[in-house]
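can u do me a favor
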């Protein structure tokens, strides 16, 4: 069976609004009379509209969405679309489950909003090619992380063809930290923990993985934060150029390659660093801002074979464990004082932390520098993975 058929079987059962209300089968909802259906939906909607669930983003986007045309991928029972339509938006509900769309269609009619609504059944990613006209926003609230990356990317790439230049890509997803906390399970298993036994897939995201799903679209990050006790990530991207037809699929694949930089030569500076089976362990000297060590990533840059990556920026995805203190990590040029991008500071934590260092320009990095960022503390930790790539 195709993945989306398995997924469809699960997602006839949609979140019923608030965390306390469990889930409802849209097939069962469709058996209710109009008045019962509307009353049940209103109860669910009220529970989900509390400030720390849907309430905060309803306030944030209400005026901005008025008069705009929005496509929602994975619309469930339509809570967001109906709210924003009541505040002037035009909404296209797209979902892999026909009964979810049928329930939404009835609810939209019952609330007198049909003139602003459209519907699309996603039988497979290519169904999105039926979309017509342009949209101001793609809205994906907890949907695309329930499909393997390649399927979600196939859907995203078609959606991008319908997004206006400088339109927005807004998405809620499950965070890396939640995945770590819940045992780093394979994505086929993790869905059972996040959304119940029948869930075939849940995959963590962060802003960088969303951007790589959209690549070669070029984007500017407007919002990127986690909420709900770190369970959820929220990303709002302005998609400056949704489609780049100048790149062949082979070139796109080449630009999306990653190369491990973990076996790069290490230079200890004012600290100690050593290779160990799981990565590179380091200990800083106690003085704040002393450079502890640096990885020579020159070979990784050459191995990427992207000397033609003119006008593109560089990125390094790292997993770091920090048992004490705080460190700053940054990509530098040949001169270690030449910081090529923003330094990211991490505080000690019991679990692995993920971060992406990027350069501001296209100059190739030479060193991954680690320096102490804590006052009179010999910060200690390890880099457990390091992948270099072109920034998407
Ligand atoms: C957790 S529910 C979220 C529903 C809704 N966005 C909300 O905020 O209540 C996930 C929804 O995404 C849909 N879905 C799952 N996988 C999908 C995919 N690959 N493409 C589009 N929709 C998908 C499901 O049918 C379901 O309606």
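np, heres the sequence
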């Amino acid at each position: 069976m195709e993945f989306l058929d398995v997924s469809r079987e699960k997602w006839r059962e949609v979140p019923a609004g608030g965390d306390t209300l469990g889930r409802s089968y849209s097939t069962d909802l469709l058996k209710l009379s109009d008045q019962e259906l509307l009353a049940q939906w209103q109860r669910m909607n009220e529970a989900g509209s509390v400030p720390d669930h849907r309430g905060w983003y309803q306030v944030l986007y209400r005026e901005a969405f008025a008069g705009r045309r929005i496509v929602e991928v994975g619309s469930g029972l339509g809570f967001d679309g109906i709210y924003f339509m009541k505040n002037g938006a035009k909404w296209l509900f797209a979902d892999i489950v026909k009964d979810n769309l049928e329930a939404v269609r009835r609810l939209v009619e019952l609330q007198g909003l049909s003139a602003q609504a459209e519907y699309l059944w996603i039988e497979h990613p290519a169904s999105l090619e039926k979309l017509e006209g342009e949209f101001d926003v793609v809205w994906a609230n907890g949907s695309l992380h329930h499909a393997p990356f390649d399927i979600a990317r196939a859907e995203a790439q078609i959606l991008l063809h319908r997004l206006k230049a400088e339109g927005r890509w807004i998405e809620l997803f499950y965070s890396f930290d939640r995945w770590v906390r819940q045992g780093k399970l394979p994505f086929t298993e993790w869905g059972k923990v996040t959304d119940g036994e029948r869930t075939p897939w849940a995959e963590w995201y962060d802003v960088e993985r969303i951007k790589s799903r959209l690549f070669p679209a070029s984007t500017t990050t407007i919002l990127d934060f986690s909420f709900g006790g770190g369970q959820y990530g929220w990303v709002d991207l302005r998609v400056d150029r949704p489609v780049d037809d100048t790149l062949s699929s082979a070139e796109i694949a080449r630009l999306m390659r990653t190369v491990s930089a973990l076996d790069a030569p290490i230079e200890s500076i004012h600290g100690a660093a050593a290779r160990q089976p799981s990565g590179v362990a380091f200990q800083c000297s106690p003085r704040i801002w002393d450079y502890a060590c640096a990885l020579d990533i020159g070979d990784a840059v050459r191995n990427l074979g992207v000397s033609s990556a003119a006008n593109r920026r560089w990125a390094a995805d790292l997993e770091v464990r920090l048992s004490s203190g705080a460190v700053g990590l940054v990509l530098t040029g040949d001169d270690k004082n030449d910081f090529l991008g923003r330094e990211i500071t991490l505080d000690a934590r019991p679990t692995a932390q993920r971060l992406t260092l990027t350069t501001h320009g296209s100059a190739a990095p030479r060193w991954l520098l680690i320096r102490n960022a804590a006052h009179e503390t010999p910060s200690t930790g390890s880099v457990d993975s390091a992948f270099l790539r072109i920034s998407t």
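DSSP finds twelve helices and 20 strands in the chain. hope that helps!!
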